[in-house]
Amino acid sequence: MVGKTTKKTYLQAFLYLLPALLIIFTFVIYPLIRSFYMSFFTDYNIFKHTGSGFGFVSYVKVLQSETFWKALKNTAIYTAVVVPISIIISLGIAVLLNNKLKGMKIFETLYFLPYITNVIAIGLAFRFIFHSNYGFLNYILTGLGMDPVVWLNDTKYALISLIIFGIWGGLAFKIVVFLAGLQGIDKQYYQAAKVDGASKWTVFRRITLPLLSPMIAYITVISLIGSFKVYVEVVGLFGNAGPADSAMTLVYYIYELFYSSYKPVLAAAASVIMFGIILILTFIQLALNKRNVHY
Amino acid sequence: MNNIRKIIVYTLLTIGALIMIFPFFWMITGSIKTYNEIIGNPIVWWPKKIMWENYVIASEYAPFLTYFKNTVIVSFFNTFITLFTTILAAFAFSRLEFKGRDTLFSILLSTLMVPSQMLIITNYVTIVRLDLINTLPALIIPFTASIFYIYMLRQFFNQIPHQLYLAAKVDGCSDWKYMWKIMVPNAKNALITIGLFNWIASWNAYIWPLLVTQSDEKRVLSIGLKYFSGEAGTDFELLMAAGTIVILPLLILYLFARRYIIEGVSRGGIKG
């Protein structure tokens, strides 16, 4: 079947691929190379494509910037909290939804709602819920006899508010994927465990978790990368980077360099650094998975 | 399962579900309350009189109808052009035999790792050079092909028996005809899922529209809402009305297309 590729088949394939490739080359591959290239210039005119001072000056500048480290720290804290907590909660909810009971489809529909939402718009709802005087959250807290919290305008709580928002928004996707994973597990395993009289918790630890481990690994990688790019959530919740930049994230920092400070070269260098961090995180995660995942 | 267990399961799920939908409920009901009701203490769960006026006042502040129209136009063209380019490319990568096919596909796949922040600077320059700044095509063109969707559709195409293709070839059916008559109808569900996700992504896009549109006439909902939230300050009922304008169409879409959206995600196809 696989004969010589003739001129005609090449031409045919070329025509089929042309529309997609034209867009992908222009808006993905070309800018990727161009951004990487320009990040090594000290001074670069993005419109004329002329630059001077080839080297690592931009990278040094980014790495010496206090804002960069603040953004990196915030992003790291956000990721380190949101990823494990949202995975544990969503796994729990998926296990509950996997019960053969009436109404589970309705629950699934409700739990998935936040996935399709516009983050800027629902961020406004959260802004209102978090409001220190009129917010629903403080209404509940004071009702329970606790002190109200200045969620969004206090540097101590801004990142915590962002984390709560992030967990809320990140559950939907994970629940659906975990539920699909749970439903894919062969019932025979559970029947065998039942015969042996294993407790529910033992069954979960010894059967469900190992069999679900590829999925947990997949979700971990995806949400690690996703959390590291947190940005729209910040805009939705604060409209800026939070009080005294206390919710400044890495992507926010990159966009601000480009959009507000108009330093495209620094923005390019910072985005390359972020890409590097994401690659390293992914490789570490994949290496860990090799040891812990049971396929 | 005994009854106590059932009660526990239902109770936990109900509490969780209430937390998940509360922001939507609070936004939508807030949008029809008066200012005094929305900041009321104790809480006012439902307004005495439904304040449709909030929507009128919000639209007087900012042209939400224009934003809405722009968003629909952009989402529409984005989705349909993407479906077209995706079908063609996925077919080529799935059925056409040419040297270097798999290498080319791997190279394209590897670019999925690249964060979009790396691309945006140069893409902005490209749009300036094409003289498309502050136009709707600037919001459409860069997103009319997606490696991820090509990858997804190729998986589906690969599941369609190859013998079918060979038989059709023997019968003298052209590739073009085979693609539209056999492959596309067979992958209908996948195409609906891709279309829906593309539509949602387009509807919710934020940073790119912020970058390439400036005037009110060309703004989409996300951007209009962002600027509006800066102006409306503490008029919560207006903010909630504006937010509802953006979210409600998505909720309605979700209600009707729930099956395709959840299926698309549960196959592990769509990223989070």
Write the layout of secondary structure elements.
The complex is a heterodimer of chains A (295) and B (272).
Chain A: H1 7-38, E1 41-45, E2 50-54, H2 57-64, H3 66-97, H4 104-112, H5 119-129, H6 136-143, H7 155-183, H8 187-195, H9 200-228, H10 232-238, H11 250-260, H12 264-292
Antiparallel strand pairs in A: 1-2
Helix pairs in contact in A: 2-12, 3-7, 3-9, 3-11, 5-10, 7-9, 9-12, 11-12
Chain B: H1 3-30, H2 35-38, H3 53-61, H4 64-94, H5 101-110, H6 120-129, H7 136-140, H8 147-159, H9 162-170, H10 175-186, H11 188-204, H12 207-212, H13 221-232, H14 236-266
Q: Could you walk me through the main structural features you see in this protein, from its secondary elements to its overall organization?
A:
The complex is a heterodimer of chains A (295) and B (272). With 295 residues, chain A is mainly alpha-helical. Chain A folds into two domains: 7-56, no CATH class; 59-292, MetI-like (MetI-like fold, Orthogonal Bundle), CATH 1.10.3720. Chain A is 73% helix and 3% strand. Chain A has helices at 7-38, 57-64, 66-97, 104-112, 119-129, 136-143, 155-183, 187-195, 200-228, 232-238, 250-260, 264-292; strands at residues 41-45, 50-54. In chain A, strands 1-2 form a two-stranded antiparallel ribbon. In chain A, a hairpin with a 4-residue loop joins strand 1 (41-45) and strand 2. In chain A, helix 9 packs antiparallel against helix 12 (264-292). The mean pLDDT of chain A is 90. Chain B is mainly alpha-helical and 272 residues long. Chain B has a domain at 62-232: Orthogonal Bundle (MetI-like fold). Chain B is built from 14 helices and no strands. In chain B, helix 1 (3-30) crosses helix 14. The longest helix of chain B has 31 residues, at 64-94. The two termini of chain B are 33 Å apart. The model of chain B has no long low-confidence stretch (mean pLDDT 91). At the A-B interface, helix 1, helix 3, helix 4, helix 5 and helix 7 of A face helix 1, helix 4, helix 6, helix 11 and helix 12 of B.
